[in-house]
Amino acid sequence: MSESTISNKLCDRFRNFYPVVIDIETSGFDCKNNAVLEIAAISLKMNAEGWLNVDQKIHFHVNPFEGAILEPAALAFNGIDPTNPLRGAVDEPVALEAIFKMVRQGIKDQNCNRAVIVAHNAHFDHSFLMAAAERCKVKRNPFHPFATFDTASLAGLVYGQTVLAKACETAQIPFDQKEAHSALYDTEKTAILFCEMVNRWKSLGGWPLNQDSNNN
After folding, report:
1. Helix/strand/coil (H, E, C) string of the chain?
2. What span, in angstroms and rounded, lies between the C-alpha atoms of 212 and 88?
3. Active-site residue flag, 181
4. Which of 59, 120, 126, 181 is catalytic?
5. Mean pLDDT score, 28-54
6. How close are the terminal C-alpha atoms of the chain, in Å?
């Protein structure tokens, strides 16, 4: 492939998908009945040389929706007290509106068609985000209804590790266990890890793909 045919546009890297890194802290494992308590989203950008980097960040503490089940074990695990007024929590529709607005603008700016969730064990975060969007009657959900990029699977391939902390350690990304299970911290580390894996593939010659060799 000649230099003139190489595209370093984000829209061309992921089949017109706009990757957005998401982490959600919840009050349990049931996306229909347990609450979103914290959510963070980080968009990504590609520089002129085709290297992927972190772009914008947005983060909210979220009030449980009415009737949500708050599992004591889940709250003990993530250390969140939903009743603490110092959390500065907002209602679920407020958080989703702000995140989706940022994502829609990013899709437009990058000439992409749709956003795709990047997350560690992505099915979990995707299911909670979709359930929240349905609960809030969001009319224009910018995220793909089922496709995700799962950094746990990718890290298993690249580093032989599926736990976020261990994958970051193997990739030489600093990780503080005391900060873990904060939505913003985990999103930041997941975003760095995803960029590292995508850029590592590029540095090894895997991107851009050699179209001439593929056609042989």
Report:
1. CCHHHCCCCHHHHCCCEEEEEEEEEECCCCCCCECEEEEEEEEEEECCCCCEEEEEEEEEEECCCCCCECCHHHHHHHCCCCCCHHHCCECHHHHHHHHHHHHHHHHHHCCCCEEEEEECCHHHHHHHHHHHHHHCCCCCCCEEEEEEEEHHHHHHHHHCCCCHHHHHHHCCCCCCHHHCCCHHHHHHHHHHHHHHHHHHHHHCCCCCCCHHHHCC
2. 55
3. yes
4. 181
5. 97
6. 13
Residue 60 bridge partners (DSSP): 39
Q: What is the mean pLDDT of residues 14-42?
A: 98
Q: In whole angstroms, what is the distance from residue 15 CA to residue 19 CA?
A: 11
Distance CA 134, CA 136 (A): 5
Q: How far apart are CA 150 and CA 157, in angstroms?
A: 11
Residue 130 is which amino acid? M
pLDDT digits (tens, 9 = 90+) for 89-145: 999 999 999 999 999 999 999 999 999 999 999 999 999 999 999 999 999 999 999
